[in-house]
Design brief:
Distance between the termini of chain A: 40 Å
Oligomer: homodimer
Shape of chain A: globular
Radius of gyration of chain A: 17 Å
Number of strands of chain A: 0
Largest interface: A-B, 36 and 36 residues
Number of helices of chain A: 8
Largest sheet of chain A: none
């Protein structure tokens, strides 16, 4: 394994480890618990779960891996704050989306070569990327892992 | 910049970005707010801040950068759960430790070469490292960034 392959493995291991951490939290929480606020007046578990699914869905386009699977989640879980709309999928549906997404991501990521991880992501121009080569696909995984951990810490408070 | 230097930059940028995120949260919270529980019955802000300082202090030894600056924090903030002891530093002291530590880490990390980041950390044996080269110093930064984000999400609920 070359150092660059080691660096990619470290990043992906942390991503999968973070996904597994949230799985573990979700497995001990009931749907009713996920309908509660993480702290008084703050986002509910259902909102944070939907938010994570929506943000991770958006990764597919950023990584140039095709269309979003659940474009209908962008409005209620990214553009809107929690408790603005009551028209949300059920917790059970969001759990299904989360599981399906996890499997799809792994399947897609397994096909990436080392070089592909260092290609530009779709939200940066070729000119900007030439000056800022860190704005690559692997960096999307790094930033989304941070985001996932942040909200997992909050959802874990419902236990 | 070589791909490996880019990978190191991405990891360190995310670490510094996560440290800056917690700084931002701490700057809007009063000491009194940090004495509150993040959610009913859960860890208080002061405990999570002390826990982060203690865990990051331990990074110095893991990265072979010298002795801990605050060994007295291990007992109350890592070994003990919150609210077990009342003998804790004040929030003001912990804020000072956090700021000092942030500066010290940056000074030390700035001196690392790319090769040094891929050296084994101190908690893995040479034999194990030969088989598992991902157990290196850069990976300590990756895992501690995840841990920091997890608890920052919780402390942010005090806002």
């Amino acid at each position: 394994m070359t150092p660059i392959e080691t660096a990619i493995k470290m990043t992906l291991d942390r991503w999968y480890g973070s996904v597994a951490s949230l799985d573990k939290v979700l497995n001990v929480l009931t749907d009713d618990q996920l309908l509660k606020e993480t702290a008084p007046g703050k986002n509910r578990g259902i909102y944070l779960l939907g938010h994570l699914v929506a943000v991770h869905d958006d990764m597919l386009t950023l990584l140039d891996l095709g269309e979003k699977q659940h474009p209908e989640l962008t409005e209620p879980f990214i553009k809107m704050a929690d408790k603005v709309t009551t028209e949300l999928p059920s917790v059970a549906e969001l759990r299904d989306y989360w599981s399906g997404q996890r499997a799809l991501h792994r399947e897609k990521f397994d096909q990436f070569t080392a070089d592909q991880w260092f290609e530009k992501h779709t939200a940066v121009s070729a000119d900007d990327f030439a000056k800022e080569p860190h704005r690559n696909k692997l960096n999307i995984i790094i930033s989304r892992t941070s985001h996932l951990q942040y909200h997992t810490g909050q959802i874990a408070l419902l236990k």
